[in-house]
Recover the amino acids of this structure.
């Protein structure tokens, strides 16, 4: 459970939202205590209606050390894996955060839902479309809340993208370009978890590509993907002379690199919409371009970012006609309240509220399965060397 002093930090989170009923505590566990779990625990510790009661990790002693480092006391961690934790009925778990590596997202989420526990699943949803389907089957059977970790949706400027599209200002949308990435940014400082196929499954495509896709597809109410032509490569990740490896003294990482460091796709969406996508962990370019949503009445330019995991730092711009004149309308950035909750705090809070109130998940699997289908489709198309159809079964 969090220390009393830690709970004072919740004041800033609560300030921008309705008062939280702390009389009934949500009993929460964390599955996987690596890097991303740090953000989860920091946010949970700010919530007055949360009691962190358990944690599990495959590495012996890692979970115990994790909670000790954050000063969270009374947490049970003597489990060899997540299944042992879920089987411990004395915990009376209400919810879990799944913070494991990509390859185990599906099994940990399915097992948690089958145990009757709400789940906040970190992005990407999983690795394959088949896994996403099985997750949704378990969700439907359990009746529990499953929300996927796309906190950028909660940013005011990201929400403005959706407001513009939904207002009809752009007319009928027919073409989308999105992507982005880093000039040098393969995420190896956390070891090889992101780099190896056996743990990650997908690289830049899923790590930051899923955010880029959600940014534009959420604005359009997630049109269904129909076909995809995909490409992926690993020229930087497999190079022992990659500057990042050399500076860090880890040229051996090139030998285990088994995912993509660049990916691209050309996707046909329902509603006669084309999606042109590219994403990179490393490239000889400062950006692969801004995101663009083109419509019959106007087009929206969204400034590129490295990761799409937060907000952007330049204004949106609409290109349209007014009284027969071609004009550009700048949408000023909405300032962030420095004393308000972080996007991660909002992600945790909205998930908890859905669990407590029986309301829909903030980021529902019914949408993100389309995101996962595109990621999976790009990877499969690249491996096959030709365009493929995307078939998503009814669940």
């Amino acid at each position: 459970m969090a220390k009393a002093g830690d709970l004072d930090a919740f004041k800033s989170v609560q300030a921008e939202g309705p008062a939280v009923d702390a009389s009934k505590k949500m009993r929460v566990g964390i599955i996987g205590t690596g890097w991303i779990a740090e953000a989860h625990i920091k946010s949970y510790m700010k919530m007055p209606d949360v009691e962190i009661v358990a944690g599990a990790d495959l590495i012996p002693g890692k979970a115990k050390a994790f909670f000790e480092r954050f000063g969270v006391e009374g947490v049970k961690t003597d489990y060899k894996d997540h299944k042992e934790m879920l089987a411990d009925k004395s915990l009376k778990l209400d919810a879990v955060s799944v913070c494991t590596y990509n390859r185990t997202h599906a099994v940990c989420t399915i097992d948690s839902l089958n145990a009757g526990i709400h789940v906040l699943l970190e992005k990407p949803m999983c690795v394959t479309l088949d896994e996403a389907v099985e997750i949704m089957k378990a969700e439907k059977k359990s009746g529990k809340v499953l929300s996927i970790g796309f906190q950028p949706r909660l940013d005011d400027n990201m929400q403005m993208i959706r407001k513009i599209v939904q207002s009809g200002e752009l007319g009928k949308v027919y073409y989308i370009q999105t992507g982005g990435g880093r000039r040098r940014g393969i995420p190896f400082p956390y070891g090889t978890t992101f780099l190896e196929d056996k743990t990650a499954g997908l690289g830049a495509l899923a790590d930051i590509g899923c955010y880029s896709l959600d940014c534009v597809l959420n604005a359009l109410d997630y049109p269904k993907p129909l076909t995809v032509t995909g490409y992926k490569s690993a020229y930087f990740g497999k190079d022992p002379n990659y500057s990042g490896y050399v500076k860090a003294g880890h040229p051996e990482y090139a030998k285990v690199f088994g995912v993509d460091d660049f990916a691209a796709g050309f996707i046909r969406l329902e509603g006669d919409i084309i999606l042109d996508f590219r994403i990179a962990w490393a490239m000889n370019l400062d950006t692969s371009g801004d995101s663009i949503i083109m419509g019959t009445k106007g087009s929206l330019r969204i400034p590129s970012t490295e990761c799409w995991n937060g907000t952007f730092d330049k204004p949106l711009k609409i290109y349209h006609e007014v009284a027969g004149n071609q004009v550009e309308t700048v949408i000023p950035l909405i300032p962030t309240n420095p004393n308000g909750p972080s996007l991660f705090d909002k992600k945790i809070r909205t998930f908890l509220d859905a669990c407590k109130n029986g309301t829909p998940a903030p980021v529902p699997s019914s949408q993100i399965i389309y995101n996962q289908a595109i990621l999976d489709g790009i990877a499969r198309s690249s491996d096959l060397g030709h365009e493929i159809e995307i078939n998503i079964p009814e669940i």
